[in-house]
Design goal:
This is Triosephosphate isomerase. The protein has an 8-stranded parallel β-barrel with strand order 1-2-3-4-5-6-7-8, surrounded by 5 helices. Helices cover 41% and strands 16% of the residues. It is globular. The protein binds 2-phosphoglycolic acid (PGA). The site of 2-phosphoglycolic acid (PGA) has 13 residues, from strand 8.
Amino acid sequence: MRKQIIVGNWKMFKTNSQAVEFIKSVDSKVNKDSNIIAGIAVPSIMLSDVQKVAKNIVISAQNCYFEKEGAFTGEISIPMLQDLNVKYVVIGHSERRDIFGETDEMINNKVKALLLSNITPILCCGESLETYESGKTIEWVKSQITKDFAGVSPEDAKKVVIAYEPIWAIGTGKVATPEIAQNVCKEIRNIIKDIYNEQVANEILIQYGGSVKPENIKDILDQADIDGALVGGASLIEDSYLGLVNYKG
Ligand code: PGA
């Protein structure tokens, strides 16, 4: 049986002191005995301080660069994350792709570098409204996944967490129906099976992201091929975050 993984994505919200207060307040209220990994991806400036107070919540970064060090002003390296004991990094979020011009080639380099360092990439994929409306979702996601997993071995591939996030559902309040989300996540599992094999496809964790809230998380996570959620807006408020990670399945 696969685990579930529910991760808040704070994007560019909160200050360091607000983040520390939040984690201090919710960490002990996270249900430790469940099959759910509870995480929060915080802005990198907060990683060090929140790591010190998070016991039950796993802390994730929101991005990193693939080179170990060098003249890359403003970037965060993997050794810097390892030094803070960070275990997860969100890679290729649609905001990184669309606003900051990240390509699948860069994302692939990041995935490979993280896996070499034993950090789990939470690899985002997903289509625009235009692609969705033209019925090309699967084709689009297949192309992203094929490029983002290029050169990744089957043993490493199953360690990746895939986050399927239709761009039209992010921050819009327009959640994909559980059926739509399930259908795409199932196809993603098939794509992984075609690239690798049945075992990798069965083991890999696939999240859905896009307007997930405490009110709809159960219906989404009840779906056979959805193993978790990547949650923006609803992860910023304490009660709401706890409602997500402590949801009753
Ligand atoms: P949302 O964001 O939950 O606010 O729609 C999801 C995400 O961007 O990861």
